Amino acid sequence: MSELVKVEHLHKEFGKNVVLKDINLSVEKGEVVVIIGPSGCGKSTFLRCLNGLEGIEGGIVYVDGLPVEPESKDIYKIRQKIGMVFQYYELFPHKTVIENIILSPMKVQKRNRDDAVREAIELLDKVGLADKKDYYPRQLSGGQKQRVAIVRALIMHPDVLLFDEVTAALDPEMVHEVLQTMLELAKNGSTMIIVTHEMAFAKAVADRIVFFDQGDIVEETTDVKGFFEEPSTERAKKFLKTFAYE
Ligand code: ADP
Ligand code: MG
Hints:
Layout: E1 3-14, E2 17-28, E3 32-36, H1 43-50, E4 58-63, E5 66-67, H2 75-80, E6 82-85, H3 97-107, H4 113-126, H5 142-154, E7 160-164, H6 172-187, E8 191-195, H7 199-205, E9 208-213, E10 216-221, H8 224-229, H9 234-241
Parallel strand pairs: 3-8, 3-9, 6-7, 7-8
Antiparallel strand pairs: 1-2, 1-4, 4-5, 9-10
Bound molecules: adenosine-5'-diphosphate and magnesium ion.
Adenosine-5'-diphosphate binds at residues 14, 17, 19, 39-45.
């Protein structure tokens, strides 16, 4: 096994607000790590630190052995190793689905158009959207837009995929199709770090659960089933109880 992401003693603050305290975490190739925890505990900030979208005040993050430093000239190389999908799909409204998808591979990776289009259609087909390739984002549902956003990340062939509450803004009936796409990716061996509030999905997809609270990793386990039945810490118990009606 090899470590794709390695975080050592990560410390992050916004002014006087300490948001991440001495975080240590390694993610192996092919592993699916699910991060859960209450709102405001630092999950999004943590993901943003992994690809250098946020500077950090202490510690170090490695991706594929390279240190992630926002000021470094290698940062663009490192960001290509990391695909990120956010809660709010940021597709360009004036570009079609296919144009949205091929933009980065052509611009950043200098791939030729035919090659990028061919792969984009292949990937769209996999997520059930090949027939939507010439649509504009406004003609798609939220779930469809989120699947396009996933394809846009995949076409860059990242080593690791980060997902930040990608279904949180979707209508309930759209959630399933997006989670299904992520489950397929997991099954096919993608390395993924997923922040979600969908506990049934977390249980189904995770190789490892990481429970964050107040900028700390409070609990971390590969016994995913055991965690959801009976977490070790009081804080995790209390957190899971808030989902008890599910
Ligand atoms: P989560 O994703 O777990 O809900 P966040 O990482 O978004 O948590 O936020 C963690 C903390 O950091 C919160 O207290 C939030 O207000 C603060 N925070 C996040 N982004 C910024 C920012 N750009 N500037 C200042 N404070 C921020
Ligand atoms: Mg967040």
